[in-house]
Each structure stands twice: as structure tokens, then as C-alpha cells.
Amino acid sequence: MNTSRINNIIDALSKHEDAQEAIRVLNEVGTNSPIDEIRERTVQALIRKNTHDALKIALIEKGKGIHDLSTRVAMSAINEVLALEDKSEAIKILEDTMNLHSDETVRDTARSVRALVEFSK
Amino acid sequence: MTKITFNTNGVGIFKSLKSEAKNSTQGHSSNPFGISFKGNVIQADVFQTTANKENTGIGIRERGKMFMSAVVGNINSFNGALKSRLNSVVSFGRQVKDNVANWWSQAKNTEISFDLNDLSRFVSERFGNNEYSVNNLMKRPVNELEGMLKEELAV
């Protein structure tokens, strides 16, 4: 496995013109990878895109992004959210998740991250 | 005007002190301990016992043997020390020689090669002129990137 090549492909997908297709590939291949490093890199790329579709995967879906079972991946995703210049879309998604998601753990995680975003302002 | 005169009695005192000092130095020069027993200087063999004087013939022989054995022992130990030092110097010299010889043989057998292909690959990977650079990858369709990503993850 050539990590630098994989990182380059993920970066290229995150900057690709065909954003919708690129996000689909990142979601299907990257976030479902059994390797922590690949999931971490993918979720960072998705959050950096800072679009509704990309953020939805990283902030709402259970077991992915901030809800990843790997602490390293989850913390990395939270860091990336906090590092965003424009956090408005992320805050909106987090608030919706806090209020509307069916899973309680997902709601709690979203609430915690929302609080962190508030403190980091 | 008042005249300052020296008392002759005082001068006499100085003179007497001078003469005493002279005598004492003379005594020291003849007897280094500065002790004289009514004018007789003690000789060195005054404290030698009579028994020793009687056994001088045997003593000298014994002492001679002891002296000779000590001399021989010293010569032997000196030879041993010299030999061991020489040996250590010789072994050090041999080691240096061996090291130099080994280095030379290694240097002779070392092949210096300059692979331009490796260098160009390194430069292209380093400065992003290869097909896996982000800029080049972004120009490709997403389906192709998906295939490449799956392929890399499968390896």
C-alpha cells in the first residue's frame, strides 16, 4: 500500500470539479476503509470541502466522521470542523442532528461538538 | 645645637651578641644536630651492638645473596613488563595494519553507480511531475480515480 499515492488520490477527489461523484467515491470507498489512516484522511477531505453533502457524511452518519469508533479518527474530524473558517453550514447540520436524529449517542456527540464549536469561536 | 653621641657600652653589647652568634654557627657546621656532649661529637657507629659486630662475616654473605636475588628478580620482572608492552604495541600495530588492509579491500570492491532512472523518479515524485501528483489526478475522471483508489487499497 502506497500511502502517499492514496493521500494524493483522496486530495484530488476532494478538489475535483465533479464534487457530487467525488463525494460519493469518498463516502463509499474512503469512509468504509478498515484502515484508520484512510478513514481519517477521507473525513478530513470531506470536511474541508465544507459543502452540505460532504458535511452530512462527516457529522450525521453513525460510525463515520465525528461518530467514528476510532478515537483518533473522531478527534481528527472534530479538529477539522473547529479549523473551518466558515462554520455556519457545520453548525446548522450539528443543530439539526442534535434535535432530529433518532440515535441518542449521535445526538449527544453532535451536542458536544456543537458546544466545542461555540467555545472555539 | 645638641650633639648626638652613641654610648660605647651599648656597642659592646652588640659585639658580644655577634661573637655568640659566630660560635653557634661554628657548632652547627661541625655537628648538624647542634648538640654537643661536652665537646665530643657522637659518631655514627656508637649505637651499633657488639653482637652485630661479631656476625659481620655471615651477614655480608647473606646480604649479598639477598641483594643479588633482588637484582635478578627485578631484571626478570622488568623483562616481563617490557615484553608485555612490546607485545601490546605489536598487536596494536597489526590491528591497525589489518584495518587499513580491510578498508582498502572494501574500497576496491565497492562499486559506485549512478542510476539516472532512480534520480528522475525521485525528482518527479518529489516535485509532483508524476502521474500520482494531485494536480495530474484532478484532471482525471472520478471513475478512474475510484478505480485507482480501490486498486491502491487492495495492494
Strand content of chain A: under 5%
First-to-last CA distance of chain A? 39 Å
How many domain modules of chain A?
1
Overall number of strands of chain B: 0
Mean pLDDT of chain B: 70
Q: What string, H for helix and E for strand, traces the elements of chain A in order?
A: HHHHHHH
Alpha-carbon distance between the termini of chain B? 129 Å
Low-confidence stretches of chain A: none
Helix/strand-derived category of chain B reads mainly alpha
> Which sheet architecture does the biggest sheet of chain B show?
none
Number of helices of chain B: 6
How would you describe the oligomerization state of the chains in this entry?
heterodimer
Please tell me what the overall shape of chain A is: globular
Largest sheet of chain A: none
Q: What global shape of chain B is seen?
A: rod-shaped
Spatial extent as radius of gyration of chain A: 14 Å
Order of helices and strands of chain B: HHHHHH
Low-confidence stretches of chain B: none
Classify the helix fraction of chain A into a percent range.
over 70%
Q: How helical, in percent, are the residues of chain B?
A: over 70%
- The residue-averaged pLDDT of chain A reads 93
Explain how this protein is built:
The complex is a heterodimer of chains A (121) and B (155). Chain A has 7 helices and no strands. With 121 residues, chain A is mostly helical. Chain A has one domain. The longest helix of chain A is centred in the last third of the chain and has 17 residues. The radius of gyration of chain A is 14 Å and the shape is globular. Chain A starts with a helix and ends with a helix. Chain B is mainly α. Chain B has 3 domains: 39 residues, no CATH class; 40 residues; 41 residues, no CATH class. Chain B has 6 helices and no strands. Chain B is rod-shaped and about 115 Å long. Chains A and B meet through helix 1 and helix 2 of A and helix 5 and helix 6 of B.
